[in-house]
Amino acid sequence: MRFAPLVLPLLLLCACETKPNAQQTPIAADSAKTQASSAPTASAAEAPPPAARPRKPDGLPPPEDVAAPPADASKTPSGLASKVITKGTGKEHPGPSDKVKVHYTGWTADGKMFDSSVPRGEPTSFGVDQVIKGWTEGLQLMVVGEKRRFWIPAALAYGERPMPGTPAGQLTFDVELLDFTPGPKPPPVPSDVKAAPPTAKKTASGLAYRVLSPGKGKTSPKATDVVTVHYTGWTPDGKMFDSSVTRGEPTSFPLDRVIKGWTEGVQLMKQGDKFRFWIPSDLAYGDKPKRPGAPAGPLVFDVELLEIKGRLENFSIYGKSIVYRLTGRRGPPGRAP
Fold first, then answer.
1. pLDDT tens string 263-310
2. Which of 136-145, 181-190, 268-277 has the lowest mean pLDDT?
3. In the structure, what pLDDT confidence band is assigned to residue 210 with cuts at 50, 70 and 90?
4. Given Cys at both, which of 80, 212, 248, 278 links 274, Cβ 3.0 to 4.6 Å?
5. Residue 115 catalytic?
6. Is 158 a catalytic residue?
7. Which of 27, 129, 132, 302 is catalytic?
8. Predicted TM-score (pTM) of this structure
């Protein structure tokens, strides 16, 4: 859910194959985080909004405390400050893989409104882990019916120098949690997540992999192809940082627009294959990623190749969605999103 932001993140230039809609939301820089993820992209820039840019809403007056949290606001160790405006009626809190339905308004610290679902007259729905870090953390503090004000530091928003059109610095949001639905359970952490087993194959670049389940396809994608996949990524300590599985929908992206380990690895697969990849840091985001929120060091991914769509001739990006024209299709149609 990104302003004219998201995604991925994290996870991206890549994304699911959907047409832009009229909503905007604070989409995360990681979430590859990117509805997409978001597959892991090589670009350090955040993806634009997950939707076609709608008409700018009429401004809503900022709260008196828009510039800084008041003394009675609560603060988490990450630096996120919040205050309950209206108590909710629910008892449960949404989790990171749940889908929420909210109304929200966002202002910069000087009181300028940059986005709001309220004038549009319809709430916004998205996955808790598909938005900026401050939202992902803050939403999990709320219950249904609650309205809360958040003061999100730049490090948990879009940063001090975000892409053009995206608000910089500290942001203030009023968020009303209308409802949420439980998301799919995350895949179990692989028993060999710490390191590739001796039975894994290894390429000259250092990429290690093994086949989890073979598919029925006979054709492998080229780097210039658009592919549709399901995937889950972990750090070697077993922490999951992104998954299309928990979002409940596959992700489509040009294979040459992602991290090097993905570009190389997915070309080893055939349609229907499911592989596990151990990607060294120099083929991922590096030991000190430039992209905010991107995981550092070596990474482990389970990837299922659902469909090879063909070559990407030209495209436009709207957040995590790519609208493109295909020139040719290789292999039989797979399970499209």
1. 999 999 999 999 999 999 999 999 999 877 789 999 999 999 999 988
2. 181-190
3. very high
4. 212
5. yes
6. yes
7. 132
8. 0.58
Catalytic member of 3, 30, 104, 324: 104
Q: Which of 173, 209, 241, 277 is catalytic?
A: 173
Q: Which of 3, 27, 30, 115 is catalytic?
A: 115
Annotation: CATH topology of 201-327: Chitinase A; domain 3 (3.10.50)
**CA dihedral sign, ordered 54, 59, 61, 67:** positive
Mean pLDDT, range 229-241, rounded to an integer: 96
Who's near 253: CB < 8 A, 6+ residues apart? 12, 13, 14, 15, 39, 41, 226, 227, 322
What is the C-alpha to C-alpha distance for residues 30 and 156, in angstroms, rounded to an integer? 11
Does residue 114 have an active-site annotation?
yes
The Cα–Cα gap between 206 and 219 comes to 24
Give the pLDDT confidence score for residue 232 in this predicted structure. Answer: 96
Catalytic residue among 114, 209, 231, 324: 114
Q: Please tell me which residue in 3, 150, 158, 253 is annotated as part of the active site.
A: 158
Res. 7 pLDDT band, cuts 50 70 90: very low
